[in-house]
């Protein structure tokens, strides 16, 4: 697998400005946004973005501690992110609809299905996410086990999202 690419921040800002203009939002009144790819490789970024744009993926999950590790704020409802493809180019803007905390063991089956991956089962979700977080935490020198997510501050963040830009991919007009 190849590493994540450098993100085209200039193109992401241009996309963000187009979104704000279309929604008649003044830049000074705009919510903040982040620019990111899904996953930890160019291939995974492409695969997951495709599931968002053309499939059923309307949820994602992360470790709460990942945000502390990277010095970033945890996502919250109303946040936006410009999602880039496996080459670092911006493709869509998503808005966070909701964020809930959960242990690995308490993730609902319907949330796993909303992640839109594999056969949409909870078993599939657990298998691929266990592998993903074990791998990504090991890459930064940390051990990770699902049991850790039962501790305060170590939970998973279960995020629901909707596409709000560009219009041809938006889940609802005017979002």
TrEMBL record:
<dbReference type="InterPro" id="IPR007374">
    <property type="entry name" value="ASCH_domain"/>
</dbReference>
<dbReference type="InterPro" id="IPR015947">
    <property type="entry name" value="PUA-like_sf"/>
</dbReference>
<protein>
    <recommendedName>
        <fullName>ASCH domain-containing protein</fullName>
    </recommendedName>
</protein>
<dbReference type="InterPro" id="IPR009326">
    <property type="entry name" value="DUF984"/>
</dbReference>
<feature type="domain" description="ASCH">
    <location>
        <begin position="38"/>
        <end position="159"/>
    </location>
</feature>
<dbReference type="Pfam" id="PF04266">
    <property type="entry name" value="ASCH"/>
</dbReference>
């Amino acid at each position: 697998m190849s590493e994540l690419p450098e993100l085209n921040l200039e193109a992401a800002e241009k996309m963000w400005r187009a979104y704000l203009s279309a929604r008649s939002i003044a830049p000074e009144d705009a919510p903040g946004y982040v620019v990111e790819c899904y996953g930890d490789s160019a291939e995974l970024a492409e695969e997951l973005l495709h599931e968002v744009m053309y499939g059923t993926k309307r949820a994602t999950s992360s470790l709460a501690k990942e945000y502390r590790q990277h010095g970033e704020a945890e996502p919250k409802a109303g946040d936006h992110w410009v999602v880039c493809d496996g080459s670092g180019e911006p493709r869509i803007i998503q808005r966070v609809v909701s964020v809930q905390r959960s242990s690995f063991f308490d993730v609902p089956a319907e949330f796993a299905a909303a992640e839109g991956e594999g056969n949409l089962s909870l078993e599939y979700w657990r298998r691929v996410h266990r592998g993903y977080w074990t791998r990504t935490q090991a890459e930064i020198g940390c051990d990770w086990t699902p049991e850790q997510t039962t501790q305060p501050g170590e939970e998973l963040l279960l995020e629901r999202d909707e596409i709000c830009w560009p219009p041809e991919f938006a889940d609802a007009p005017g979002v």
